[in-house]
Structures are given as C-alpha cells and as structure tokens.
Amino acid sequence: MGKYGHFSKDGKEFIIIRPDTPAPWVNYLTNKTYHVLITHVGGGYSFYISPKDSRITRWRYNALPWDRPGKYVYLRDNENGEYWSLSWQPVCKPPVFYQCRHGLGYTIIEQEYAHIRSTVCYFVPLEDELEVWHIRLINRGNKPRNLSIFSFVELCLGHALVDLINQPNDQHFNDVRFVQEDNAIYATKRYWVTYSGPTVKQANQAWNKWVYFSSSLPVIGFDGSRNKFIGPWRSESNPLAIEQGKCSNTMITAGDAVAALQNNISLAPKEELEFTIILGVVDKPHDRGLRTPVEPARKLAKPFIKKYADSLNIDKEFNQLRKYWDWYLSHAQVATPDPQMNLALNIWNQYQNKITFLFSRNASYYHGGLLFGRGYRDACQDALGPVMVEPDAVKQRILEMAQNQFKNGSVMHCYFPITGGGERTGHSDTPLWFPLAVTNYLKETGDFAILEQSVEYLDGGKGTILQHLLNNINYVLNDTTNRGLPKFGPGDWNDTLDYLGRQGKGESVWVAMCLALAIKETVQLLKYLESEKKLQSKGLMYQTRSIRSLRQKYEQAYFKLANTINRLCWDGNWYIRGTNDWGEIIGSKKCKEGKIFINTQTWAVISGIAPKNRAIKALDSVRKYLDTPKGPQLVAPAYTEVNPRIGLATRCVPGKKENGAVFNHPVTWAIYAECLLGRGDIAYEYYKKALPPAFQTSKKIKVKVKPLFPQSKISKLQSEIIYDPADEDIYEVEPYVYAEYVTSPEHPTFGQASHSWLTGTAAWMLRDGLDHILGVKPTYNGLLVDPCIPKHWKEYSVTRKYRDATYHITVKNPSGINCGVKEIWIDGKKIVSNLLPIFPKGESHYITVILG
Hints:
By secondary structure, this protein is α+β, with helices and mostly antiparallel strands. 28% of the residues lie in helices and 25% in strands.
C-alpha cells in the first residue's frame, strides 16, 4: 500500500486513502459525447464533445487553492450552523474517514464528518448526455439531525477560451432560470463564439445547448448568481448562502452563472437517505431574442430528470457502465509471472489508452482544451489500442483525419471536431502517422473496403483512403533537401526543436526514419493487395498492374532513403538527430551538449534501415549514455545554454520536458527496438522502469543528480538523492497512469512526473506489452506469435480477441531463452508456422507455443 493509495483487490479501482495528495488526482467519466474530469476531491469540469467550444462548467487552471471549482455537495447542520463538503474540498474540514475510489468510468468519494457518513458516486451513463451524482447519507450518531444540502457547480456555458479571456463581457449573455415543477435550474448563453483562437470578431449566434441541474429531492432554494451564492470577498470554501443557511433564489440574465440547489432533510439516528443530482445538456431547438424560451429544453430534459430520480434506473445504468468496461477489457487479457505487468496490461493501460483516444491532448489538468483541439498525429497513434476492441470507432476517426488532409498530402496539425478549422503548422512528421494508422487498422480488421472509400480534401476534390495514404508519403518524399533527407521545418515529433529548419534547409534524420517505416508498411500493404487481389471491385482505379508498379516504386524509395541515412547520418556509435539551416549537426559526439538523442537510435531499428551491427551499437549507446533508473532519457547531456539555432528545447530547464527528461513516449520505442533485436531482458527492464509508481515495488536506490547551481555550497547536498520508484510524493501526479515525462537525473527533482493521462505512451506501451514482449501481433493474414521475453520467465498466457474469434495462447519457455518459436499446437494439432490463421467469427481456440 502506498502513502496515499492502492489498487483494489480486483485491480479495477485505485483507492485513495487521504485527500491531501501531492497534486489533484484525476479520473475521466465519459461516453460518446458527454465528458467529465473529476478529481479525488470533487474538482474538475464537464463539457460536450469539445472542451473549448462547448464547455459546461468551469475549472480554474493555476488556481489557489488547487483544483477549484468542482462538483460540490455541501451539508449544513441547521442546529449549530456548521457545514462541510462531501468531497473534502472545498471546505476541507478534517474527516474522521475519507476514501476515494477512482474506477473505470466512475469515481466514488466516501467520507465521515460530524457523525454523518456520506458516499457520492459520480458517473456518466453510456448513452445519456448527463452526469449522475448519486448520494447516500447515513446518520451514525445518536441524535436526530436537521440538515441542509447544497449542491453546486459554476457554469461556463459555451466557448471556454472566450470565457477565460473576455469574461466580464461574456457574462452579459448568460441566462439562468429555475423551474419548480422540475426541481431544476436551466442555463444557457445567448452568444456563442466558434472561432478557433482569440479574436475581436463578433459572432451572431447563441450557444446551441441548454444545461439543466436537478435534484431528486424537493428543492426549497436555489441560486443562479455566483455573487449571491458565494458572496463578496469569499470563495467556494465559505459561501455566504451556506453560512446563512439559505439561498437567495436568484435567476439571472447577466453575470457569473452558477447552478446551486438547496434541499432540507431530517435524519433520525442510523437513518439512511439516498438522492440524486444530475447535470446534463439538451439541444436548443429555438433561439428567439433576449429570453430564449425554456419550454423546448424542459420537454427534452424532463424524461431524464424523471428517469434518474429513480434509484433503480441509476443502479441499472451504473451496472451497464461496469459491464461495458468488463467487455472492453476482455479483448486482451494476460497472465504473466509479473503481477504489476498483468495489472497494467489487463486494466489500467487499456483504460488510459481509451481515454487518450477520446481526448487526444485536449482535456486534462495540463492540457486546458482551449487552443489545440484534436492532434492529428496524436489521434493516429492513440487508435492503436481501441482498434482491438472498437474498430468502428477507429474507422470513423480515420475518415475524420482524412477529411483534415489537403490534396498535396499535407495535413492539419490539429483540428476541432465541432466547429471545424484548426492549425496547419508544417510539422514535418505529422502526415506520416496516417499511413501507420491505416495499416494498423487493416491488420486488425481486414476491412480493406475502407481503402476504396472516398473522402473530401480540405482544399476541394475527393480521393480514396488509399490515395490519401499515398499522398501523405509522397508529400514528405517530395519535401527533401538536395541531400535527399526530409526537411525539418518548424519541428518534428520533437516540437521544441523548432528553429532547426524554418528556412527550409535543416534536415530531420528521425523523420527520414519515420518516412522509411511508413514506406515499408505501405509496401507490405501493396504486396498483400497485389497477391490477394483485394482491390478488384467495380470502379477501382488501382488494378493489379498499377498496384505492382506502386509497390516497386516505394521499394526503390525505401532502399534509396535507407542508403542516404546510413551514408550521411551515422556518427560512429549512433545516428545523428539532424542538421539546422546553417548546416550544423545536432546529436553528434562533436556536440558540446545534446550529443545523443534516443529517437534516431530506436527508429533506425524500428524502420529497418540500420544494418545489424549498427542497430546493436545504436541501442547499446542508448543504454550507455541515456539510461536512468526510470528508463532512457530523451537526450543527453541536456542543454544548459540557449541556442536559438536549435529552439525551445535549449530554453527548457535541463532534465525536464524535452530537454533531457525521461520522455515515456520514446521509451516505448526503445522497448520496441530492443524486442526487434531479440534482447528481451533489456526490453523488459525498460518496461518495468517506466511503470507508474503504483505498479512498482519499493526499492530505494542512490541516484546522482545534477545540482541546480553547480557553484553553490549547497550543490553538494543536491548531488545525490535516495530515490524510491514507488514514492508517490516524488512522482506527484496520478500513480496509476503513465505521465508524458519524468524528470531525469539532470535535475535535482529526479522522478517528478508531469502531463499525466493524455500521452501517446499509453497506446505504444500497450502494444509493446502485447505485440512485442508477449509477442501476439496482428498481420494481414492472422496473428503472428513472436515473443521477446525475459529469460527467467517459464510460462505465460494471452487471451486475445481478433476479428471476432478468441485465441487462448499459452507460451512455455523450458530453455530459458528470450525469443524464438520452436513449435506451435492449435487445439492439440501441431502447425508448421508461427502465424495463427484467421478463425471463423465466434470460435475459440487453444494454442500452445513452445520457445526454443
């Protein structure tokens, strides 16, 4: 058990046992459209589809106190005036008992204060566009209690960026009303900006939603005005309405909007009470002048208000939610000798990856959801996990991304699903992720018909998905320097290497390797299409002959590119990272700082361009120069001097973010590359190091770190720390999910993590575990069994659903080796290949694999 929490026995909940965690620890409650971030103390916010364009409630970034406002239920003892909140925040009275259970799609906060035991269960139903707060109170004392209940949210109502930067003016359009018959507050905004960024342009439209906030108990008071409910010179921790014991019954047409409801109850000793608060949105059918009629919204909302006033319906919806996640997780289950790996792969890695697929890098405690929308390259990678379970959702995402391409093969770097638009930044790697997303989808599903589906380009005209894919590759192939290497542009995967190539002369060696992989995957696809004659439907422009010609063209391009990289970019023991517009090399032994970058070493192997001896040398250099107790860092040594010819990376603090942190995303590529070389012990070691603290075994070690101020006397005290990988205080963020990065030993705060939840690490780490370490990976022709495991493992099993059939795979390692399949048996019959066939839908088969 950790200092702040631990997993439940079944592993499906992380149980936080004290509220004062090192940072707010978040969970996601979501269905297809309605989304909630909820912290372990009731903070967070709600939105409909887009956190920028259709925000429902507020959450203040950089707020003091932390994590305000939120979804609060206050209790007030009407005999003595004492009040507290059921989620600890925002009143923060010390509870006799506190526990938060972050589960899969729900959060339950339990607390006891002043002899009142409370439970608040927050969840979003699978289909309905609302959130449920199901509350249970028990009087554990010996005397009757006369209590007031105040439920509260602060409303945003529309465009969150405008609400932030133009708040005084934006509040002139708020409209909050109470309807006694519904026990509900209704709120909307008569003005709605849908522009992508800040602008002085005025919109002439209303927000297309009504919010409703309702209680299943009789409402005896309400407020729509924040000023009236909170009061002057106060905060959520001491609202005037609660202190006075009554709301002011305010309805507003301007001002800061809230939704606050008051209920009065009596609880006899040992008596229990259950009730429900719901917050939801409905469409706004009409927009007529100053006072938008609320009746159409009431008509849409009342069935939900009635439905969720019934505890039987709440139980039914909550059980459906849990059944959904049981079904989702059942598509990939493992049993290895490592319980922490099992817990990660079976539950939390899958859960995090699904959340990341839904939210890209757009809605978290670190990504405010105000500017960037859905990242194009992020979305391509995040689909790696959900494609195993919900291929239709991934298919729709592929079509959506195709709609954000231009005819020449360039793409939007980020885009907005509700309002359209986005940003075309020119990052040199962004187009290359689409071919990888499509080929991964095809291997998993066999849905080759998607290649013939026609999708419009942003600048007019249409093309099939296959044409879109080829255009992406052609765009990067044609945008090279005179040496034949892709131009760096304003950045590649390393966004902060952003001034290497703005003049069009800098070269990205990593993009060259990413391009090589995209070409290699496309060649494999074309070879399969050519041999299987999959694209012979009526009206198809690519017949077998042209497929063969395309395949040959890209094969030649791959070998030419590989030769160019190996001729120009090998530095003796590793590959350089690139060059800038002035011809200066980065990532070379000749550099004073930033001598070696991890990406070009791992992708030299992943792309297949590195000869075997160079592949080994490159990964050995990663291990020698970049490895730390948390896995290999991004670059070393970190930059200590600003170099405007490189960019923002050199302005980052050494050891943090993209200046030498342990960036978990590239760590996943190191694991993948080590597996490709058959070095299972090293791959497994990196995998274990990268696991979040809740999956770690406490093992304190001494680590040398770089002092902040080398010349200072105190620097000697900072040069060595005792590091515990399971220490939640050091890690700070949620210990049950991967973070984007962990501070490396190049900074005294080694082990401190940041940017948790929404990271490409989740998708790649899941596939590292399933595909590369455990070695069960999809191909166009079936599941390939090709493990790369630690030698000490004797046996493990994988249950994998693939194309609607179930594969029960047991792998035995009697010889204690890393890799190599000796024989395979299917249902007791030996086969001659390690490629498992595609079984008919609905069938289950048992496979035994012997390594040797």
